[in-house]
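Response to reviewer comment R2.3. The reviewers asked that we include at least one raw input/output pair. We reproduce the pair for YcaO domain-containing protein here without editing.
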Amino acid sequence: MAFGCTEAEALLHGTNEVIERHILSCFFMAVCSIGPAMDLYTPSEELLTSALQDNPSAIESANKLQIIIIKDMLGVYFTVAFPKAGPGDLHISPIGSGCSLDIRTAIQRATTEQFQSHSLYGIVEEAIDKTTLDLLSSSDKLKGLIGFAHIRSLSLPSLDQPLTDFTASVPQQLKTLQNNLLREGKTIFHRTVARYSGNNVVSQCYVPGLERFNIIRNGCLVAPQHILRKTSKSLHLEQQK
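Raw output as returned:
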């Protein structure tokens, strides 16, 4: 679900969120070697500075993170950020992720979300992470998601700052995302959950067929889509016999 000052804005935020979860899931599966490898990038110093609006404190904190950009899925920029030092005294590394047609926005969302996840860490989060750690530790393939050990210190190719500023309006961005998904055979379904004064809206978005493997890092058991489809097909064939 996502909030917006207009229906289009709520739908845009919701669609970005669904796509973000999908790419994060694909990234997790790549880390676990149960999905295809992905091309990974990192922001140049200039791009990171611009994305964080020259904020010295934010830049200092961001420099302690491995910031990874994926730019080859569904026509968006996706960013994930986690500590270069690993989990430290926490059960698992706190991460942040972000998705946008604008690379600066994606970087800003991921880094600030990581800052928040670390700063707001409390008893509830500790309990969830303990459950997650137990799950991830039980599998050789999933262990890589605990602290991203083999990728947190990688030297990645950098992406430079765009030559022009991002100026697409909310309706234009939404149309672009819809077209990007349609090219992959995917459709956005949505419903309005709540309306408030001043045209403020909460929307719920769903795109069938996108991955939700990201919830594995919340301690939830989940299977990748290709396994579910294979299982469903096998059951269908079995029923036809």
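Residues 81 and 239 are 45 Å apart (CA to CA). The radius of gyration is 19 Å. Further pairs are available on request from the corresponding author.
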